[in-house]
Amino acid sequence: MMPEEYKKYCPKLFSKGKRGLIYVFVKKNKKYAIKIKNPKSKAYNRIMNEGKFLKLLNKYQIGPQIIDFSESFVCYEFIEGIELKECINKKIHKDIIRSILKQCEIMDNLKINKEEMHKPLKNIIIKKNKAFLIDFERCHYTLRPKNVNQFKEFLRRIEWDSYNPSNIKQKNE
User: Fold this and answer.
1) What is the pTM of this model?
2) I need a labelling partner for 70 at 20 to 30 A (CA). Which of 145, 153, 166, 173 fits?
3) pLDDT under 50 in the chain at which residues?
């Protein structure tokens, strides 16, 4: 259910996911997104989980800037851009790939697994040659996070034309 404090901005449905509904609204000429639980979802506590991880990861410049969250919603700046899936058959600057890998490396170092990097087609937004990871509701702590490995495997699987895995090295490799 939409929180009362955001109803005055007349949020419009933007996207439906398995676990969440995303609405967008404008406040002081800035666009924001608010995610609430999809009433059809049986998932427990995913919205609060996303808010907690997004708040932490924002300290490392990962994810959209969080504005507010509770157990029933998470509100953040809306990232206007294109989904990674729209870039698959186009040349994409290697700096964007490096940026995604760096964000994955930071999450791995924090022992956080995003659970989305094996198929991140809708979970990475490209805006002005910058990559933004989104959708953190499945994040969890683990002793063996796999974000970097999952993303590298994704790149190998799709055989990205502008990507050569041997050309991109991680700091600790």
Assistant:
1) 0.86
2) 145
3) 161-173
